[in-house]
Amino acid sequence: MTFLNAALGSLSLKNPIMAASGVFGYGLELAQFCPPESLGAVICKGVSLAPWPGNPGPRVVEAAGGLVNAIGLENMGVQAFVQKALNPLKDRGATVGANVIGRQMEEYAQVTEILSDTAVDFLELNVSCPNLAQGGLSFGADPDQAARLTEMAVKKAQGKPILVKLPPLVSDITLLAKKVEEAGATGLSLINTVPALVIDAKTRKAALGHITGGLSGQPIKPLALRQVYLAAQAVKIPIVGLGGIFTGLDAAEFIIAGASAVQIGTAILVDPKSPLRILAELKDYFISENIPDLASLRGTLKNPNA
Amino acid sequence: MTNQAQISLVPVKKIVGRGQGAFQLTIQAPPGDYADPGIFAKLRVLKGEFPLLDRPFSVHRFSPQTGELDFLFRVVGQGTEALAQCQPGDLIQITGPLGQGLLALDPNFAQKPIYLVAGGIGLAPMASLLQSQKEPATLFYGERLGQSLIDRDYINSWAPGFLATSEDGLGYGEKGRVTDLLTKALAEEKRNIFACGPIGLLAALSPLAKAHGVKYYASAEAFMACGLGVCLSCSRLTLDQTRLRLCQDGPTIDGLNFDWNKP
Fold this sequence. Notes:
The complex is a heterodimer of chains A (306) and B (263). Chain A has 306 residues and is α/β, with parallel strands linked by helices. Chain A has a single domain (2-54, 72-195, 217-297), classed as Aldolase class I (TIM Barrel, Alpha-Beta Barrel), CATH 3.20.20. Chain A has ten helices and 16 strands. In chain A, the strands form four sheets. Chain A has an eight-stranded parallel beta barrel with strand order 3-4-7-8-9-10-15-16, surrounded by seven helices. A four-stranded antiparallel sheet of chain A has the order 5-6-14-11, with no helix packed on it. The longest helix of chain B is centred in the last third of the chain and has 14 residues, at 199-212. Chain B is globular and about 50 Å long. Chains A and B meet through β5, β6 and α8 of A and β14 of B.
């Protein structure tokens, strides 16, 4: 399937389908449904310096045909991830991305430094989680802060490619994307979940223990496509698109909007085999539409009146 | 770190009403061992509308001899409504077996007399436990509203002599709470406890079991997205500060070492 080969800077991917952070555990848990080595990459659950406990439950609720979550980045910590999950994943031949989270810039720096000495193939800086009081979104919403964080991570990463995962709701996604590109990012992941609130009118209670959460799934696909499209006009670095991809045609739409690769999130929670199905459907699309390779489809959006 | 679960498509064999809004669904058993009480599966109806996520249900009964797997559920939303509309022959997508059962947690549990405590549709896994139980077992079953009580004859068919309560005193049960019955029984004879039901009930049983020095296992529930241990939606804490994923490290848990107060 070489016509579906993709690349993130110097890192080549066997196909453009990745498992998004947070829905594929630490990479091995769903292996009997979806072997991690069959994907372009798996991005493991966000890791911080020390383990984080996450938010009080309920942590997830369905709404508007999508999912709102406020897991709160519960994780085992970077050291445990490296010791328990990373080597078995690499032994299987998987391409592994580590999602990096932190409450302060210093924490991002330390986690990045630890990961730079491991077999991790690339890093994804999460500056866009809506479910943290400190860190996460508070970095990504401010272009200058996001740029400083990126610059720092690039210095610590010893040449490993760095994706920066951006938030969907910012006043100007192109400004944010440009600043992060200038700061040395290898690529961008667009978008993280959309800040959201679910209320039960009868009880007047919020559905989630954290009150607010992040909306994912099919309802956010048009929003995600637009941000990918705008960012792709503004920067030269590759963009990894995500947000409501459930089918091969969804993935194709993101590539048409300008993405070089895509991530599957909520669809994996619905069906852990879905990345393989989406990959097969994307392949069928390329064959039936007679498209020779990814680059021939990327950024080919047409005006309906042209 | 891997799951034993498989995703299978199996036909509905029977669906029988068991009281107001309550149904017993019998499907052809897919591959896998569903015998340990507390094991659950995710179900999805393939025809018509179904919500985004599969819905998790405790196994009600598992009969490898007849090749049947049963679930007992109450209609509470879109997913259970779709399930209730199923007809024999309709295909169900089942992901399972999932989670940890009671006998995986305590292999000797069934070798002593026990009390079973069921709150509401927490009745479901009790039949599975009684299938393998040789020692005396008494089932206490409570509903908030008497009208919600599941058919008495049906429960009697697998838990003869069970005792029921409802808080409004309507229906066939005694007026009161299921904990009242358990308190009385424990005063007469100490036995280990297995319970399933709302978190409030399960939490209330913990001090009771502690006071009487008996073992207490519960099948707990939480909203979950994946059911496969990856999303951490159902993560809870034990008293010794270990994180449990109810979908994988539970749903059967040691009720005496569980932080019932931290959501």
